[in-house]
Amino acid sequence: MPFANVNDISLYYEVHGEGDWLVFVHGGGSSHMTWWRQAYFFRDYYKCLIYDARGLGQSEGIEHAPEGDKDLLALMDHLEIEKAHLNGHSAGGWAVSKIAQQHPERALSLIMTDTPFGFFTPELSTWAQEMLDKFERGFDIRDNSVASYFETTEPKEYFFRGMLGRLNAGVRPPDPTQYTKRFGNIYEYMRDTPNGDYSNFKIPTLFTLGEVDNLTLPWLVRGTAKRVSGAKLAVFPRAGHGPPQEQTEAYNAVLLEFLQAVDQKRREPSHEAPKWSLVNYYHALSGIA
Amino acid sequence: MPIVKIDGTDLYYEVEGEGEWAIFVHGGGGTHLSWWRQVYALRDRYKCVTYDAFGSGQSGGTSDSPNGERELLGLMDHLGIEKAFLNGHSAGGSAVSKVSQLQPDRVHALIMTCCVFGFQTAALNKWAAMMLDKFSRGITIVDRVRPPDTEKNDPEMHFFNRMLGRLNSRVRPRDAESYTARFGDAYRTMRDTPPVDYSDFKVPSLFIVGEYDELQVPWLVRETADAIPGSTIVEIPDSGHGPPSEKPGTYNSVIMSFMDHHDPRNRT
Known about the structure:
The structure holds 2 protein chains of 2 kinds. Chain A has helices spanning 36-42, 68-78, 93-102, 122-136, 148-153, 155-165, 176-192, 218-227, 243-246, 248-267, 278-284, and strands at 3-6, 9-16, 21-25, 47-51, 84-89, 107-113, 205-210, 232-236.
């Protein structure tokens, strides 16, 4: 099974399908397995790269998402990926949005799946302080990652998701107070970093959001998407922090349509997605249109 | 299980869930069961009503001369429903769009799933003429309602959908000649009735079309949506005439977004 030596550690990765590159970066405490349904679906259209981020799954090192861009760039170099569609979920958003900002020539498009990370805004600053306060009160990220609706309507999927989450049982701190100790500095960094200006951002960008996301809160993701020039936002009803799993079919359909529109625009610059496209439909209802 | 008499004929219906009323009207050859995935997914927020239209399932009567709006209004009165979300699939669209035109105050929002029936436009004239031509050449409706690869992609669902379709085996003509004989008048009326002006139509409406729908083809739905002010249109990728059963995840997400947006409980 493929491992790549990057930045002095060994990273586990998988490649599925043929076509333009499409990279998926999972969130905190997760693994490449998070994306299995997307790899299965998108391999018919794209060459999909999924991998275990540093410190998680079968990769070495210590988890540190805010610098995930360094590992991803090194992995892209290793695999000779010149340009790719970049999709990050939650903490995986750091890696993809930083590459899209700092190395725009490597990004065909940017997909921010329930994540604002890497875009520094007044909303992020406010949210980070709120999270620090919540951690003080014992808030546990793991209890808040999907909506209760998912458990009711898709009990089998929900159960399976729980099993996948426990693949990192050994490396994630077991109680919320340790969470604060280990990741608190990341939230302080988000709170204290000056705001960026994204009004001239050139990479085609799609944000997604679960309507009842209890982690990267709706007002945070909406506020961020609004500040990124040209970004579209799709809000999935009844979904929490994990639309790729909670509403797999709708999420995949919206994402595929977005990617194909970006590809078509590259070949034919005057191309615009029609008004009946899913992306435009969801964007119109997203509250920021 | 509840049966009510509407205009002297039995109508079978079911009610599931709590919240604002949402009524689902199935298409030709369907039954209330056509909507089982939607009821399952929406019953947490909506009081979902499904029923067997006249001539289908466990209801009496025939569907030869469709006046679906009378069944629907009769059922709404019987259940004391002042205002509801209305969603019609295919032939069921006629009932919901006519109620929306006759009694707009009783409709929170209208969802036209793979259909434009009840909206008399120039596009409908053109489409009905095209369909009559197809019937005359022996092309049947029943063979044309699903994309070719549903069977391959999800054989279990395909199998189950076919079983649901056969629940009305005794009442549906399966060859083109009987089809034309039975529904030809309805198509000729659609072809020959002059377009209506909808500029005063106020009910928020959503038109949904399957990318590969060969019955209510995308251009028909697009041109109809263009004629209905303030309407929204969305195309479900990789789906034929039956997104509720072919792409239930995407379809449910789409209608929930729209219904939540127009739910009076969300207006504060």
